[in-house]
């Protein structure tokens, strides 16, 4: 058991795979276990989960820097991005990064029948090209290699009229940046937000067109009176985009997200990126200020696995990811394996 930033984590030595699956704080895991135990014993009631859903929503809002009324809940990032993609006008021109995670690009590519086009450019060119397009859809931090998009350039493009949708799945929870200005900020919970898989959130600006094409009872102005019949009475804020919550997943998120939101973001960023840059320096790479390191060396994945380092293979590289529960010993183990 490790202690980090005031929480305990049952994380093994050499676990450097948060970019795939985050390890929850012990309290968050216990909350999920208690919720499942109540389910097994027939002691749970649907209304019991309204409070955890609200707490997780508020935690996400605090992490992004917006009001909770601007946050919608969903099961995965692509499902929430799809609510935006379904509402863009016919012929919308979308800009994306080459090799972008498909949960960001495919919801827009699926609108090709309406004349929606998606143009891919190198990540380094996204900021400079943004003003040529109607909407930019891009990850703040690239999943495959940890590169960070030029947020200042995107913010300037937005001031010029380009809509900006950011996927913060690989950044929110460790990266100390302001994304509250974006038209939409989406993130899945099961990586850096240390929540169970099955929960995601999206912060949307009130003037961003969206399409509630997955509307159900939980999107109602009063969900508990919106269970049967018509007419449809959607909530007038972002809750009108909600899908029915994954209760047991939300129980864990209700612990993890408010805790993350209360941390010193700069200290978390310095810790995570500092460990990653230690590995970069040991491998002769330039510092990047990112918590994700892509190692493109022969047999890197095999060497890491043999040393007990848990990593991932992405885009032809061994991917290492350092979160707040990782230590200098984890970085040293990875370097020993690779050098």
From TrEMBL:
Transmembrane segments: none annotated. The lineage of its organism: Bacteria, Bacillati, Actinomycetota, Actinomycetes, Pseudonocardiales. Residues 53-283 form the Aminotransferase class V domain. Gene3D superfamilies: Aspartate Aminotransferase, domain 1, Type I PLP-dependent aspartate aminotransferase-like (Major domain). InterPro entries: Aminotrans_V_dom, PyrdxlP-dep_Trfase, PyrdxlP-dep_Trfase_major, PyrdxlP-dep_Trfase_small. Pfam families: Aminotran_5. GO terms for molecular function: lyase activity. This is Selenocysteine lyase/cysteine desulfurase. The keyword Lyase applies. Keywords: Lyase.
């Amino acid at each position: 058991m490790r202690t980090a930033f005031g929480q305990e984590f049952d994380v093994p030595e050499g676990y450097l795979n948060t970019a795939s699956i985050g390890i929850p704080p012990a309290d968050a895991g216990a909350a999920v276990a208690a919720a499942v135990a109540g389910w097994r014993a027939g002691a749970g009631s649907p209304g019991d989960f309204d409070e955890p859903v609200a707490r997780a929503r508020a935690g996400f809002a605090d992490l992004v820097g917006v009001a909770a009324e601007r946050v919608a809940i969903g099961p995965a990032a692509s499902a929430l991005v799809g609510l935006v993609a379904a509402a863009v006008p016919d012929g919308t021109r979308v800009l994306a990064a080459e090799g972008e995670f498909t949960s960001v690009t495919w919801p827009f590519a699926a609108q090709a029948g309406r004349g929606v086009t998606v143009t891919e450019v190198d990540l380094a060119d996204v900021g400079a090209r943004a003003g040529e397009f109607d909407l930019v859809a891009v990850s703040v931090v690239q999943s495959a290699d940890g590169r960070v998009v030029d947020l200042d350039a995107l913010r300037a493009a937005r001031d010029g009229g380009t809509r900006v949708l950011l996927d913060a799945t690989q950044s929110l929870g460790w990266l100390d940046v302001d994304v509250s200005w974006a038209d939409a900020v989406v993130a899945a919970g099961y990586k850096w937000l240390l929540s169970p898989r099955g929960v995601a959130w999206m912060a949307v600006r009130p003037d961003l067109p969206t399409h509630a094409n997955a509307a159900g009872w939980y999107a109602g102005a009063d969900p508990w009176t919106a269970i049967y019949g018509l007419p449809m009475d959607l909530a007038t804020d972002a809750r009108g985009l909600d899908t029915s919550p994954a209760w047991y997943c939300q129980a864990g998120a209700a612990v993890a997200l408010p805790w993350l939101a209360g941390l010193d973001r700069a200290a978390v960023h310095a810790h995570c990126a500092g460990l990653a840059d230690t590995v970069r320096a040991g491998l002769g790479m330039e510092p990047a200020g990112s918590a994700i390191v892509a190692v493109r060396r022969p047999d890197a994945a095999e060497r890491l696995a043999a040393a007990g380092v848990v990593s991932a293979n992405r885009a032809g590289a061994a991917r290492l990811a350092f979160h707040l529960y990782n230590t200098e010993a984890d970085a040293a183990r990875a370097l020993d394996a690779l050098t």
